[in-house]
Design goal:
By secondary structure, the protein is an alpha/beta fold. The protein has 2 domains: 248 residues, Type I PLP-dependent aspartate aminotransferase-like (Major domain) (Aspartate Aminotransferase, domain 2), CATH 3.40.640; 122 residues, Aspartate Aminotransferase, domain 1 (Alpha-Beta Complex), CATH 3.90.1150.10. Helices cover 41% and strands 16% of the residues. The strands form 3 sheets. It has a 7-stranded mixed sheet, sandwiched between helices. Helix 4 links the parallel strand 3 and strand 4. Helix 9 packs across helix 10 and helix 12 packs antiparallel against helix 13. It is globular, with a radius of gyration of 21 Å. The mean pLDDT is 96.
């Protein structure tokens, strides 16, 4: 099929032409004396996106899952207890990974379509008078269900409980797209992925770690019973200080990251967050006009980076996704785990504007109509248009 495919999954996202051009570079010696001129400013500018002045940032050649592992194995010890709120596919996977690493995972099951419950976390921490819980794990944005947790409120709950637990946050599909304030929200370890709001190919993850967490890791590291090397923050710290890495980095990815950060900072992070909210509002207006609902159990849970749309009980979301791909060259996100066949997802993050999203809404609308779902053609597009026209300045 001619023309560019419409990519509207919640990652990987569209890579801007400026970033693609920046990545088209010849290979170079990653230990040459000028290499730190590329690396050191990247580490500093990443701090701006994470909103930390005192934390350290790290770049790993891995997906976001590697970032999960880097934070856990470098800061915690085998047998440590962590508290995890589970409310979707990715919070489930994070808990599984922590268990595989030898951590003891205490799980708070929350309804899929909701997020972390700060009051419940505070109550549990207050009851933990012996401070057995070493960390609280929160997925900021659960793409499987299209919900965003209130990380600020979770951080406040930990502080109110006067508990020393560290706060680990999966910001893979939020950081660079949604408001995130590492220092002021009391986040100790945050993980982001290259293929989401950073508008890069998959293959890099970014980890930010507070001074408190680093100090804890250095102390607990004396008693580590499981060795680790590839994801060692200690090795990264030693080499990053001089502008290098403990192993060969992806040089094109680093040049792409330079241009991605330029784009985010040129737009201004508050404007980036406002743009994502504006686009998400239009997408949710389309869902309402179709007579359908999002997976979020209440409006305040709705994510500004991905909308999970529940199809009627007599419909199959898998067929809608397949038809959209083959007939209209539109890639939509699938329902995961217990949501398979029940929802499809429209990702609206990264390099995106109103007309691009209108194309995805139109394609989803046609695919549903073709698959027998009773919606009025044009209804969702018109509702999104009306929502977008309320804005007086371009996104």
């Amino acid at each position: 099929m001619r023309g560019r495919q419409f990519l509207f999954v919640p990652g990987p996202t569209n890579v801007p032409d400026r970033v693609l051009r920046a990545m088209h570079v010849p290979m170079e010696d990653h230990r040459n004396p000028d290499f730190p001129n590329l690396v050191l400013p990247l580490l500093e500018d990443l701090k701006k996106v994470f909103a930390t002045k005192t934390g350290k940032t790290f770049i790993f050649p891995a997906s976001g899952t590697g970032g999960w592992e880097a934070g856990l194995v470098s800061i915690l010890s085998p047998g440590d207890k962590v508290l995890l709120s589970r409310f979707g596919r990715f919070s489930h996977l994070w808990g599984e990974l922590a268990t595989h690493l030898g951590l003891t995972v205490e799980i708070f099951e929350e309804e899929w379509g909701s997020g972390a419950n700060p009051d419940r976390i505070a109550e549990r921490l207050k009851a933990d008078r012996s401070h057995e819980i070493k960390a609280v794990l929160t997925v900021h944005n659960e793409t499987a269900t299209g919900v965003t947790s209130d990380v600020k409120a979770v951080g406040a709950a930990i502080a109110a409980a006067k508990h020393p637990a560290l706060h680990f946050v999966d910001g893979i599909s939020s950081i660079g797209s949604l408001d995130f304030q590492m220092d002021s929200w009391g986040v100790d370890v945050a993980v982001a992925g290259s293929q989401k709001g950073f508008m890069l190919p998959a293959g890099a993850c970014f980890v930010a770690v507070s001074e408190k967490a680093l100090a804890h890791g250095m102390e607990s590291g004396k008693n580590h019973r499981v060795a680790h090397a590839y994801f060692s923050l200690t090795d990264m710290l030693t080499n990053n200080a001089k502008g290098y890495f403990p192993y060969t980095p992806s040089i094109p990815m680093l040049h792409g990251l330079r241009e991605s950060l330029n784009l985010l900072l040129e737009e201004g992070l508050p404007n980036v967050y406002d743009r994502h909210h504006h686009l998400a509002t239009g997408c949710r207006a389309a869902v309402k006009a179709w007579g359908l609902k999002t997976c979020a159990v209440a409006d305040h849970w709705n994510s500004d980076t991905v909308t999970a749309i529940v199809v009627p009980s007599d419909a199959d979301a898998v067929k809608v996704i397949s038809h959209a791909f083959r007939r209209y060259n539109l890639a939509l996100g699938a329902g995961l785990d217990r949501l398979a066949g029940k929802v499809f997802r429209i990702g609206h993050l990264g390099d995106l504007n109103e007309l691009m999203l209108l194309g995805a809404i139109s394609g989803a609308e046609m695919a549903m109509h073709d698959c027998g779902i009773k919606i009025e053609l044009g209804s969702g597009v018109a509702a999104a248009q009306a929502s977008f026209q309320k804005r007086t300045r371009p996104v």
